[in-house]
Amino acid sequence: xxxxxxxxxxxxxxxxxxxxxxxxxxxxxxxxxxxxxxxxxxxxxxxxxxxxxxxxxxxxxxxxxxxxxxxxxxxxxxxxxxxxxxxxxxxxxxxxxxxxxxxxxxxxxxxxxxxxxxxxxxxxxxxxxxxxxxxxxxxxxxxxxxxxxxxxxxxxxxxxxxxxxxxxxxxxxxxxxxxxxxxxxxxxxxxxxxxxxxxxxxxxxxxxxxxxxxxxxxxxxxxxxxxxxxxxxxxxxxxxxxxxxxxxxxxxxxxxxxxxxxxxxxxxxxxxxxxxxxxxxxxxxxxxxxxxx
Length: 293
Description:
Elements: E1 9-12, E2 15-18, E3 36-41, E4 44-48, H1 54-68, E5 74-76, E6 95-99, H2 100-121, E7 138-140, E8 147-150, E9 153-161, E10 164-171, E11 176-178, H3 196-209, E12 215-217, H4 226-248, H5 253-259, H6 273-292
Parallel strand pairs: 4-5, 5-6, 6-7, 11-12
Antiparallel strand pairs: 1-2, 2-3, 3-4, 8-9, 9-10, 10-11
C-alpha cells in the first residue's frame, strides 16, 4: 500500500503548498519537515522541494497530477538538505534546478546525508540507497551570480553557514516569498547546521527582499508574513547577547545555558526543544570565538 496523498493547500491563485511537520525528522513524521511549494506558470509547473524519500516524492507527484491533471515540469532544490531533495527521483521528466554550489555539495555528500536521514526516520528509510539520489543538473550562479531570474521567480543566494547557501525565491507577479531554511513562521528559527551571525545577516537581507510581500513561506509551520522575519532577527540578537554575556563572565555552560530566559518569545518557543538546541549551538560558537582571541 502506498503512502496517503498529501493535501495541496491553496496560497494564492496558481500557488499551493504542502504543509510539513514541525520540529526535527523522526520516525513518526518520516522526515517530512520541509514544506513544498507548487507554482503554475502557463505551461510549466514549478515545484520547490520534492520531499524526504522517493516514496514521499511519488505520493506528492500523484497528488499534483490528481489535483491539476498535469506533471511537474521543473523542480527546485533550495539547499543541500535531504529532507527536501530525496524525492527528486519521483519526478523523472522534470528539470531539476539548484545553485551550482548546492548541486556540487549534494553530489559530494548525498550518501552521508542519506545515512543521517535514515538514522533519524528509522524503518521508513528502507528504500534510501544510491537509487534515491538525483543531483540537480540545471545550475544557477555558476558564473558567480548571487541573484537572478528563473521562470516565475526572482532568486537570491543567501548563506546559512560558511559555504552553505540557500535559495530565496520571490514570485514576480505575486507578493509571495519562499525562504526555506531561513524562516519558521510562528516559531523560532532552527539553527541546526548554521552559523548564527550569518543567519542574522541573511535575515536582514531577506527583510529587504521581502519588502512589500504579503506572504512568506518558510521551512515549516503556517503561512507567514514579514513579521516572522523581524521576530527571527530579534530572537537571534537577544539569544546571542545573552550567551555572549555569560561566556564573557566565565559562567559554567551547563548551568548558564539552562538559565537563559527569553520570555518575549514565549508564544514562539513551543515545547522549547529547538530553543534548547539553539542555545547550545550559539554557546559553542561564542566559546570557540573566545578561545581564538
